[in-house]
Structures are given as C-alpha cells and as structure tokens.
Design a protein that fits this description.
The chain is α/β, with parallel strands linked by helices and 442 residues long. It has three domains: 159 residues, Adenylosuccinate Synthetase, Chain A, domain 1; 98 residues, Adenylosuccinate Synthetase, subunit A, domain 2 (Orthogonal Bundle), CATH 1.10.300; 158 residues, Adenylosuccinate Synthetase, Chain A, domain 3, CATH 3.90.170. The chain has 15 helices and 20 strands. The relative contact order is 0.15. The structure holds inosinic acid (IMP).
Length: 442
C-alpha cells in the first residue's frame, strides 16, 4: 500500500519526523516534487540529521527515490550521500531519469530575479537553490534531465542550446556579468562526471516502473511531500509560493504511479499546532501587531526552534490558521492528520486560532483565491485555555489520554473542523516523542 505525507500549511510542519515515525514498516520512501529547498531534520537516537534532498527514510536504511517531479542538484545529492556515509550510514538513493537537473546558472538566476522583484515586494523569499528557474526550463521544454547526464552527446547538445539563452537573460535583460556558471565547456565536464557517478552507482531509474513493481510486490511505499499546501504553485498564496505541487495529486504525476493507486492509500496531512513561515507575503494570523505579540512570537520561535533548516532564517510566527487547513483538507483529501509541536505551546495562559476570516463584511471559512484578498482578511480568533508544561516523553509513552485535557480539546477541535481523524500527535522533536493513534501500514 501507499501512504502520502503532505504539509497542510506553509512548509516546515515536521513532515520528516512523521515519515521517520512510520518508517519502520516502509520499504521505499519517494519524493515527488521540490529539490534541495526542502529541509528535513530527522532525529534518530542521539543523532540529528539535516537533509535537504535525500528522502528522510534514508536515515532508517530505506530505499529513497527522487521522482520525476523533483528537481535535482547532483552536487547537493552527492554531498549529502557522502556526509551520511561518513556518519556510518549507507543511503540507497535512486533518481528518476525523467527528473530535471538544477544547474549552477539556475541558482544565479534565482538570485537575480529575487533582487529584481524586491523593489516591488514581489520577491518570494526563495531559498536561492534555483528551484523556480529549473521548473521554468522544464515547462519551457529546454531543461536538462537526469537521463541526459548519462548521454554526453545529448548533454552537450542541450547545453549548447540553453546556456547562451541563459547568459543573454542574465547579461542583456538583468545587466549582470556572468561567470563560470554560464560556461558550456565547464558545465559539460562537471555534469558529465555527475552522470558517470550516477551510472557507476546504479542510481538512476524509471521511477514509475521502479515504484510500481515494488507496490505490485506488496511492499509499502511512502510518498514524502516537501514544502506545504499553501506554497503550492497552483493552490498556494501565489506568487509567494514554490514552483512545484506539494499537494497530494503530485504524488502521482511526480512519480509515475497512477492516481488510483495513490488514492486507495492514505493521505496524511501534517499540521503544526501554530503557523510558521520562512518566506515573504501576507500572513493574517501573524503575531506581529504589537510588542506583546512580538514577544509571544519570540517565545514560540525560540522554544520551537523556528529557524529555517536550509537557510537558518528566523521564521515568522502566527496562530493556527484554520481556513488554511480547511483548504488543505479539500485539496489533498486527507485521510488522517498528524499534529505537531503541541508541546511548544505549553505554558501559555491561552492559545488562539484563526477560526475564520472577516472580509468585506463577510465571514469566510476557507482561503480566498488571491493572495491580495487573503492579505485583507481579518482573522476571527477563537481562544482556548492553555495547557501546562508536562513531561512530554512520559505523555508519549502513556498515550493520548495523558495529553493535558486542554490540549486534547484543541486537537479535537482541529480534527472536527477538518472532519479528519488524528493519527499522531507530536509532543517533542524526537521520534519517540510522538503519541501514535493510528499506524497506517497495519
Ligand atoms: P523556492 O522553493 O526556493 O523557490 O522558494 C519559494 C518559496 O517557498 C519561499 O517563500 C520559500 O521560503 C518557500 N520554501 C521553499 N522550500 C521550503 C521549505 O522546505 N519549507 C518552507 N518554505 C519553503
């Protein structure tokens, strides 16, 4: 069977931990979109692993697949694999031959365009990893795919077509002087060698065939979405979004496994008990209105370790945005929820949520379609009594009933609003600090 893990908010909901939690019964973990913009922190025993491209399951000795919907920076991929090997792990990572490759000029162009947009506040606050420019080239049918790295003639031909265009874009449109990142001969040498290493290590696959065969053989496959629903290129807060579809439908298109297979499995929405955001753009429930709110945001940020895994940037903090979650539940068709970080909110006198929005005298229960309208939304807050700090490891060991009553009220409110059962509650960063109510692979 399959389980698809999807971020229900703005990314950084703690998906890696959930993948890891259910990882014991998983044979293969596949990513279906994004690239090294994702940051997963996986805590295993006394070790912490920060990964951006290698699927988190690799820490648990599972096969990791980067599907055709991913954009792959081979330099990052090999760096991560090498550093995991240095720490005694032997990750088995396969890469779809249909996945697109991030080249150095994509990163440069990412930075150039962000700079150009910043005057009009249209910059998305990207991770600078070249994600958007690479997806642009994919859709523009001028991208270079992993399969092309395996064939030096094709690689050269593709580079000869695309690089002069990229150089002209940087120099003539944006007036930026270009360097080695735009040099065909040096790119060819570097990427041909990446192709050789991929081939030598037997890493490339037809993702649909590879995963389909595993599913046919009754193995358990987990699809690990990166980022979150509200930064989905179609369903998110455009243009402050990433350039792929983190939502569940992309688990099919981004791997080559049919939607009927994905749809008969589970789709688990990962929810953080409050909101955090690393990028720019509006955030109606943000805690930033006055000094008291800012202090509260600081407290939550420190306690929750809310600093970007990839960039180290402090994350913006807000109350849980329930219309955002209703939108996510509809778009993804969640069958279960994992709600993380309720321990971070412990000790507050009260905890609020944005239950609905007020917009032009109307009450909205879900997100408006444009980000400009979303920015005009006033959250209708609902207040819950806070819960005290407890020994969360003990709570995890004892189970759901040991969660403080007020926190359970909060959790059950979310579950009721989304009409979706809770499968897991994260009460701390460690794998064992999770209250498990349902194990989907059983
Ligand atoms: P990009 O994906 O680097 O193009 O960045 C586009 C937007 O997505 C920016 O607002 C980023 O901060 C955000 N973003 C990208 N990856 C992640 C992630 O893994 N977690 C949270 N936000 C992300």
């Amino acid at each position: 069977m399959t389980v698809t893990i999807v971020g229900a908010q703005l990314g950084d909901e703690g998906k890696g931990g959930v993948v890891d939690l259910y990882g014991d019964r998983v044979d293969v973990v596949a990513r279906y979109q994004g690239g090294d913009n994702a940051g997963h922190t996986v805590v295993h025993g006394d070790q912490e692993y920060k990964l951006s491209l290698v699927p988190s399951g690799a820490v648990r000795g599972k096969v990791g697949v980067l599907g055709n919907g991913c954009v792959v920076n081979p330099a990052t991929l090999f760096d991560e694999i090498d550093s995991l090997r240095e720490r005694g792990l032997d990750p088995d990572v396969r890469v779809a031959e249909r996945a697109h490759v991030i080249l150095p000029y994509h990163r440069v162009l990412d930075g150039i365009e962000e700079d150009a947009k910043s005057d009009s506040e249209l910059d998305a606050g990207t991770t600078g990893r070249g994600i958007g420019p690479t997806y642009e080239d994919k859709v523009g049918r001028r991208g270079i795919r992993i399969g092309d790295l395996l064939d030096p003639d094709v690689l050269r031909e593709r580079l000869e077509y695309v690089v002069p265009q990229k150089r002209a874009l940087a120099e003539d449109v944006f007036g930026v002087k270009t360097g080695e990142e735009f040099d065909i001969a040096s790119l060819y040498e570097q990427y041909r060698r990446f192709g050789e290493r991929l081939a030598e290590e037997g890493m490339t696959v037809n993702a649909g065939d590879f995963l389909g065969d595993r599913i046919d053989a009754d193995e358990n496959v987990m699809f690990e979405g990166a980022q979150g629903t509200s930064i989905d290129i179609d369903h998110g807060i455009f243009p402050y979004v990433t350039s792929s579809n983190p939502t569940a439908g992309a688990a099919a298109t981004g791997t080559g496994v049919g939607p009927t297979t994905i749809g008969t499995g589970e789709v688990i929405g990962i929810v953080k008990a409050y909101l955090s955001r690393v990028g720019t753009g509006p955030l109606p429930t943000e805690l930033s209105d006055d000094e008291t709110e800012e202090e509260l945001a600081d407290q939550i940020r420190e306690k929750g370790g809310e600093f970007g895994t990839v960039t180290g940037r402090p994350r913006r903090i807000g109350w849980l945005d329930v219309p955002m979650l209703r939108h996510a539940a509809r778009v993804n068709g969640f069958t279960g929820l994992a709600i993380n970080h309720i321990d971070v909110l412990a000790g507050l006198g009260s905890v609020s949520v944005g239950h609905a929005y007020e917009l032009d005298g109307e009450t909205l229960e879900t997100m408006p379609t444009t980000t400009e309208r979303w920015a005009d939304c006033e959250p209708v807050l609902r207040e819950f009594d806070g819960w005290s700090e407890v020994d969360w490891s003990e709570v995890a060991a004892e189970g759901y009933a040991a969660i403080p009553e007020n926190a359970r009220t909060y959790l059950e409110y979310v579950s009721d609003e989304l009409d979706t059962p809770i499968y897991a509650v994260g009460v701390g960063p460690g794998r064992e600090q999770t209250v498990v109510l349902e194990t989907p692979f059983e």
